[in-house]
Amino acid sequence: MTVTIYHNPKCGTSRNTLALIRNAGIEPTVIEYLTHPPGRETLVALIARAGMPVREALREKGTPYAELGLDNPDLTDDQLIDAMLAHPILINRPFVDTPKGARLCRPSELVLDILPEAQKGPFTKEDGEVVIDETGKRVR
Q: Which positions are catalytic?
């Protein structure tokens, strides 16, 4: 069983998502996409597998999104993918790919819907929000 997370260790949501994967007893393949970005084929397939439009996979905050004019609705999916490949910071995070599907895990608890294993114990996010109770059940 392979679980892959496209991870940014500086992002709290990404760290929480990784911790939830590990809380299920899974050691995922961790790809720090800013230093090892996915290729075109992988990125296109990941977005398609997540069932989302390419535009929704773009990150605006803290990126050159505005400077590159990526808010232009006339840009094609290929042009948006080109921008993400040229500037990996534009790829929203964290994407997780499992045998049960792929998701952009914002918020981090969306990963629970695609994990092949149940949570093994309680889990609290870095900000103090309880996600999994002491019996291993999702709080909400």
A: 11
